[in-house]
Structures are given as structure tokens and as C-alpha cells.
Amino acid sequence: MGKRLRFVCFALAILRFPDQAYGQFAEAHNYDNGPVGVNQVELAYAYAHSNSSIDTSLIVAGAKFNLNQGTITYTRYFGLVRRTAWVEASVPLADLSGFISGTNIRGSITGSGDSSYALTVLLKGGPALSPERFADYKPTTTVGMSLTVSAPTGQYNQNRLLNLGSDRWSFKPEIALSQPFGREQKWQCDLYAHAYFFTDNTSYRGREILRQEALPGLEGHVSYFFVHNAWASLDTLYSFRGATVVNGVPQNDAQRNFTLGSEVNVSLNSRNTVVFQFAKALVHQSGPAVIGLAVKYTYTWGKGYR
Fold first, then answer.
1. What are 91's strand-pairing partners?
2. What is the CATH number of the domain that holds 161?
3. 260: buried, middle or exposed (CB in 10 Å: 19+, 13-18, 0-12)?
4. pLDDT block averages, 10 residues each, the chain of length 306
5. Phi-psi region for residue 205, left (φ > 0), alpha (ψ -120 to 50) or beta?
6. Which domain holds residue 271?
7. Burial bucket for residue 241 (CB in 10 Å: 0-12, 13-18, 19+)
8. In the 8-state DSSP scheme, what is residue 135?
9. Helical segments of 90-246, H only
10. How many domains does the chain divide into?
């Protein structure tokens, strides 16, 4: 029974990350240039189902977890030393439930998850342009970098089985390369390299200390524009390491995960965009066997933007 309780607590704590709700993906074209002085609000819904332990020493047959999550994100584009940059803030609201078949171990919780904040700067191929000048911009090779910080603002109770917060900070630096190619540059390849770094959770399972090593990842996207306002992509993600230590005892749970997914992005007009995403973990050594989907709507506005 103790192992089962540990499994449920730890697995559901990991599933709280907003991007992990649909396979840990960033989006294709995530580092595309945009006009400065523009604002965006994104409303997203994500569903994820998982039936596998993230810790190979605590595998429990019949475990099932379901996450329904809504996220609101605000983004502001601006110029930084003549380069395009933007800041982003996200707040998730989620409903999380889980149970283990053949047992009475089950639970559910609804509330706020951990918020996240990001700063992105385009180092190459992203000149800061007004909306009027951006109308003549032609996509080219782009190199960018970002830092995303997740804050422990979500609901967390050290004595509760299910939690929407992680009670620790995480930091994700990332560097990206985007390259359009092919006839009329309808194709684009995006390559991202990142790593998650975590502070300790000092109230894990009550009064225990959870420590996790860095979790690096490599991400790739190949996308194609069917028409000028609609594209689809094939997405891949490989992550590894991230082993944990509880009260000084190594858990021998280094991860090796490979996730495959797809995305469709449709611009209804210059202000309104709809995105559909799907992802499935094909390899999940010490990681959750997640299958998930997301639907997003983005509204854009700003001075001079039409």
C-alpha cells in the first residue's frame, strides 16, 4: 500500500506541468519573428491520459490518470537592442483525477496549477519591426533563446494525495534554430535544445525532501504551409536523465522518453488563430505513458496592427 501511495503522489505531481499535459511540446514556429508593440491572449484546453508509473521501481498495474486543464496566456512583443523579444505569462486551471484498478485508492482535485513566465529573444533573423514594416518581412534563418520559469503558485498540501502544484521552482533555458526551405519556403524545420532545472521540494510526502537532477531535452518540428494561413507539423521530443533523490536516497529513476505528435495551425484572419495539437509518448522509461491533445485560440491586437 505504501508503494502505491508513493506512486500516485509522485506521478500526479509530475503531470501538473502545463506543457506536459500534451506531451511536453513547445510549438513549431515558436521562434518566428513578429511585429513589436503587439499583444496576444491565448486560451487553451488540454486533456491528458496516463496509465503508467514515472518510476520503474513503483510500477502499479491498472493505474489511470486523467487531466483536464485550461490555461490563459498573455504575450507582449517588443524591441530589445533592435531585436524582437517577447514576455509571456501563463496561469492554468485544472481538474485532476486518478485511481488504481482493484483498489480503493482514488482521488480528484480542481483548482489552480503552477504559473509560468518566459522571456524570449531572437538573436539572428529577428529584427524589431513595426506592424507596418513587418508586412514586407520575409522569413529567414532564425536563432533564438528563451528562459521559462515555473513558480510554485498552484494548490499544494503536503498531507493530500493529489496536488495541482509542485511546491518547487523550475527553470527551463532553451536555444532554438528555425530554417525555412523548399519551394516558396513552404517548409520549415525547427530544432530546440533545452533543460529543466528544479529546486528542492522540502515538503514532499509530508516532511521528506525531493531533489531532482536536470532533465535535458531535444525537440524537432517539420512543418508545411498548405496555404498562406494554414500549416501542419510533425513533432518529436526526446528527454533523458532527471533522476530523483528522496531524503538522500537515490531512486534510480533516470528517465528516457520519446514523444511523437502533430499540430495544425489555422489563422482565421490577422487577429484570430486556432491550433490543434496531439501527442503520444512512444518510449517512457521512468516517465509517464501520456497521450494527450490540446486546442488553442489566440487573439492578437496592438497599435498599427490590422
1. 72
2. 2.40.128.130
3. middle
4. 39 39 71 96 91 40 79 97 97 85 79 94 96 93 97 86 82 97 96 95 86 93 96 95 91 89 96 95 81 95 88
5. left
6. 2-302
7. middle
8. T
9. 131-134
10. 1
